[in-house]
C-alpha cells in the first residue's frame, strides 16, 4: 500500500492555486501554497518539472538551483549520465538529496525531452505518477521517509499546458497512487486510460 503523503500545490498566484486545488477535490492531504519556490516553508521533497538532460537553468528549475546551489544540478546530471545513459526518459523519476537542511530531497521528473509544447499529451500525468512512484520506492527502502511533497504546476511553463489541465492530470496520478490495482484486466486498463485521456466526456489527450 502507498505511504500517506501531504501534497502541496505551489504557485505564486492564489487564483491559480485554487484552479489546481479544485482538480484534487475529494483527495486527502492536498493543500495549496500561494508563494514562490524560495519562500516555501521547510518540506521533505520538491518535484521538478524537468527536461530529460537535467538542464536546470530556466523557470522554476533555475529557482531550485539558486536555492540549493549548482552542486545539485551536477548531481542530477551525473545520475542521468550514469543511470539513464545520458537521457532520462519521460515517465521516470529519481529522488536526489539536496544537502540543504530542512529541504532534504528533490525529485527530478521530466515532463519533456527539451523545452517545448506538451499540450494535448499525457506527459504531465506520466511525470507526476513517476515522481510519486519514486517517492514510494524511496520510502520502502529508506528509514528517512518523504512525507511532505511540493509540486509546481507541472508542464505549465514552456510546456504550454493550462493550469486546469495540469491539475487534472496531476490529480489523476495522485488518485492512482492512492488506489493501486490489485489485479489486471482490460476493464481496469480501459478505466485508467479514460481517466487520463478524458476530462468528463471530452477527450483532451490523444493516443
Radius of gyration: 16 Å
Largest sheet: 6 strands, mixed
> How much beta, percentage-wise?
15-25%
Counting H and I runs of at least 4 residues, what is the number of helices?
6
CATH architecture: 3-Layer(aba) Sandwich
Apparent shape: globular
Strand order of the largest sheet: 2-1-6-3-5-4
- Look at the structure and give the CATH class: Alpha Beta
Low-confidence region ranges: none
| Count of beta strands | 8
Q: Can you give the helix content as a percent range? A: 25-40%
What is the residue-mean pLDDT, rounded to a whole number?
A: 96
Kindly report the CATH topology: Leucine Aminopeptidase, subunit E, domain 1
| Helix/strand structural class | alpha/beta
Sketch the topology as an H/E string, one letter per element.
EHEEHHEEHEHHEE
Corresponding CATH superfamily: Leucine Aminopeptidase, subunit E, domain 1
Quote the distance from N terminus to C terminus: 30 Å
Short description:
It holds the Pfam family Macro. The chain contains 6 helices and 8 strands; from the N terminus they run βαββααββαβααββ. With 207 residues, it is an alpha/beta fold.
Layout of secondary structure:
Elements lengths: L5 E5 L3 H9 L7 E4 L11 E7 L7 H10 L1 H14 L10 E4 L7 E8 L10 H19 L6 E5 L10 H16 L7 H12 E2 L2 E2 L4
Parallel strand pairs: 1-2, 1-6, 3-5, 3-6
Antiparallel strand pairs: 4-5, 7-8
Amino acid at each position: 500500500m502507498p505511504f500517506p503523503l501531504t501534497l502541496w500545490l505551489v504557485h505564486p498566484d492564489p487564483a491559480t492555486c485554487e484552479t489546481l486545488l479544485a482538480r484534487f477535490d475529494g483527495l486527502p492531504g492536498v493543500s495549496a501554497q500561494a508563494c514562490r519556490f524560495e519562500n516555501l516553508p521547510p518540506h521533505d521533497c520538491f518535484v521538478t518539472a524537468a527536461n530529460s538532460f537535467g538542464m536546470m537553468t530556466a523557470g522554476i528549475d533555475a529557482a531550485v538551483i539558486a536555492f540549493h546551489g549548482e552542486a545539485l544540478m551536477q548531481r542530477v546530471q551525473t545520475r542521468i549520465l550514469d543511470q539513464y545513459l545520458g537521457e532520462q526518459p519521460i515517465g521516470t523519476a529519481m529522488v536526489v538529496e539536496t544537502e540543504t537542511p530542512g529541504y532534504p530531497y528533490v525529485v527530478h521528473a521530466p515532463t519533456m525531452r527539451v523545452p517545448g509544447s506538451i499540450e494535448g499529451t499525457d506527459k504531465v500525468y506520466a511525470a507526476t505518477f513517476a515522481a510519486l512512484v519514486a517517492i514510494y520506492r524511496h520510502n520502502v527502502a529508506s528509514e528517512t521517509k518523504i512525507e511532505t511533497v511540493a509540486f509546481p504546476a507541472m508542464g505549465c511553463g514552456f510546456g504550454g499546458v493550462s493550469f486546469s489541465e495540469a491539475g487534472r492530470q496531476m490529480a489523476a496520478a495522485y488518485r492512482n497512487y492512492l488506489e493501486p490495482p490489485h489485479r489486471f484486466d482490460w476493464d481496469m486498463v480501459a478505466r485508467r486510460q479514460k481517466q487520463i485521456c478524458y476530462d468528463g466526456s471530452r477527450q483532451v489527450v490523444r493516443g
